[in-house]
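Troubleshooting: if your tokenizer reports a length mismatch, compare your output against this known-good record of 100 residues.
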Amino acid sequence: MENTSLNWERIERILTESFREEEARLLRYYYGISLEAPLSEKELSKAVGKRGKKLSAALDKAKGRLFRLLKEEEIEQIVLFGDRQSDDERKGEAEPEEAL
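Known-good structure output:
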């Protein structure tokens, strides 16, 4: 599990396909998707134009929906396992040698 990471392309596709632009932007900023780091609460509030309870409610709703959607996905589609990729690459390299 050392080489495990999230499939950010798949998560981005879920945001694009399943959320309104405002909700998707809120989640991108909150989790730091496509950014170097997540925004602080103050920066997040400024970026999406909501404060206090409205921001909290919108964020809770969007996070809950994202987690439900991710839960429905197959784990292999949202988590990249480095060891499995290495095995696949090794198999791909071994096949041409066998053909010779």
